[in-house]
Amino acid sequence: MPVYITPAGHKKIVEEYDWLINKERPRITAEVSYAASLGDRSENSEYIYGKQRLREIDRRLRFLKGRLEGIEVVDPAGFTGDKALFGATITIEDEDGEVQTWTVRGEDEVDTANFVISYVSPLGKALLGRRVGDEVTFQTPGGRREVTITAVEFPRP
């Protein structure tokens, strides 16, 4: 099953991968080489920390490479209509009249502080495929909630 992501999310992953491989890893490698040249490595904190940091970078690079190989970029700028699709910004109103606006994107793009959720989150799953006016029920840690979709918008090309 592919993992969906917007072009902006894809760009962010590619930029992080490029930065790690072309800037950060070479810088840390140089620091580790210098620290190793100073002698006893067993008590050399710069060497020990540097090697640990290299392992972290390599782990992140492997993760990002695997992610890039398994993602499918979906550009929601071409979508229109009132049906909630991947990349849409969806306004909902709950039973208490509270209005929230969420954007549904890929798992790597989640930013709940800025109201960006994943399409695999409980709310994201519940909203996708629904239309303006539909009532949607989903599970939260606090129990089941029901909301009504009041607007669906897509980014402009």
Poorly predicted runs are: none
Total of DSSP H or I helical runs spanning 4+ residues: 3
Shape: elongated
Number of separate strands: 7
Return the domain count: 2
Biggest sheet: strand arrangement:
5-4-3-7-6
CATH architecture of the largest domain: Roll
- Termini distance? 27 Å
Q: CATH superfamily of the largest domain, called what? A: Transcription elongation factor, GreA/GreB, C-terminal domain
Radius of gyration over C-alpha positions, nearest whole angstrom: 22 Å
SS strand fraction: 15-25%
Binned, the helix content reads: 40-55%
* Average pLDDT metric: 93
Q: What is the CATH C level class of the largest domain, in words?
A: Alpha Beta
Question: Can you describe this structure?
Answer:
There is one protein chain. With 157 residues, this protein is of the alpha/beta class. It has two domains: 3-73, Helix Hairpins (Orthogonal Bundle), CATH 1.10.287.180; 76-153, Transcription elongation factor, GreA/GreB, C-terminal domain (Chitinase A, domain 3, Roll), CATH 3.10.50. It contains three helices and seven strands, in the order βααββββαββ. The protein has helices at 7-37, 45-70, 122-127, and strands at 3-5, 71-73, 89-94, 99-105, 116-118, 135-140, 143-153. The strands form two sheets. Strands 5-4-3-7-6 form a five-stranded mixed β-sheet. A two-stranded parallel sheet has the order 1-2. The longest helix has 31 residues, at 7-37. The relative contact order is 0.16. The mean pLDDT is 93.
